[in-house]
Specification:
104 residues; mainly beta; four-stranded antiparallel β-sheet; ATP/GTP-binding protein; two-stranded antiparallel ribbon
């Protein structure tokens, strides 16, 4: 028998737009960000977290963040693990590797 999965029902925010997410503006030392929390039930595609460079598999809750300066479009949105987003100011800048670069 498989273990029981306890999942809470996610209800869309009242306001009529539909969708099961919450969005807020967050001010940090790296600027002002719009942060949207994505429930695991609504995460249907894999994404690459810019904080740890690991994949966020489908079904895992995470956050989507983009700059709140008004210039942000869909290309500026980044999907983060929740702990990676919270630790972004404590980490040093990561060197961006090309897709085929060695990992050593």
């Amino acid at each position: 028998m498989s273990p029981r999965k306890n999942r809470r029902a996610v209800r869309p925010p009242s306001g009529g737009a539909g969708g099961a997410w919450s969005q807020e503006t967050e001010d940090g030392p790296d600027g002002e960000w719009i942060v949207r929390s994505i429930a695991g039930a609504n995460a249907t595609k894999p994404y690459r977290c810019p904080g740890c460079d690991q994949e966020i598999p489908p079904g895992v809750g995470h956050v989507v963040a983009w700059p709140a300066d008004g210039r942000g479009d869909a290309d500026d949105r980044r999907h983060w693990h929740r702990p990676c987003w919270q630790a972004r100011t404590r980490r040093g800048p990561r060197i961006q590797r090309s897709r085929n670069a060695p990992r050593y």
